[in-house]
Amino acid sequence: PREQPVLEAVLPAPAEEQNGTDGAKAPKVNCEERNTTGIERFTLQILNVSQDLMEFLNPNSSDCTLVLFYTPWCRFSASLAPHFNSLPRAFPTLRFLALDASQHSSLSTRFGTVAVPNILLFQGAKPMARFNHTDRTLETLKDFIFNQTGIEAKSDVAVTEEDWEGPLPSVLTKGIDWLLLFSVLFLAGFVLYATVRTESIRWLIPGQEHEHQE
């Protein structure tokens, strides 16, 4: 008699375990959470013009700091302000700093800040991730921090009236964009120089010299 084929049962358990392993994503940045003992108020710190960001970042540690580059006359920075002000309460084990990009132009150039607001996550003194979402709300900021660090936000934190008042200003202030002003003055000076030197430039064009002699 012919032998009957033997069918082996395929158990789904290994596949499920593999999928579960893949689904649990490890944090991209392993942050050392700071000791919050004795800290009563968790708030954002804004650097003034004389303070250097590097003085607040420890290159020898693994603690994480979220740094905001903003300008007081940028409406996008103003709309982000109350949401960013509430972050220190949502993540008390992390540090949060903000600085005026127009007053710290060297830092803006160093870290590639071509537009504000710009948010960078630092581990020690090294930038690890940049917030690139156009929807800048407390929830999207929470998701960004959780996806990068694996640290969960406190669920009872929401944007309050105090967050609209400060420390980061949510009201636009009048100011001068010195970079834009310099660009306009440079362009105007170049056009004026080209206009004055038009006669001299003609001598550089082939054929113009013979036409002038005739």
TrEMBL record:
Residues annotated as domain Thioredoxin: 7-150
Keyword field contains Nucleus: no
CDD domains found in the cross-reference section: PDI_a_ERp44_like
Source organism of this protein record: Alaudala cheleensis
Keyword set includes Calcium: no
Residue ranges of the TM segments: 178-196
Gene Ontology biological process terms in this record: cilium assembly
PROSITE patterns: THIOREDOXIN_2
Region (Disordered): 1-27
One Gene Ontology cellular component: cilium
Sorted UniProt keywords: Membrane, Transmembrane, Transmembrane helix
Protein name as catalogued: TXD15 protein
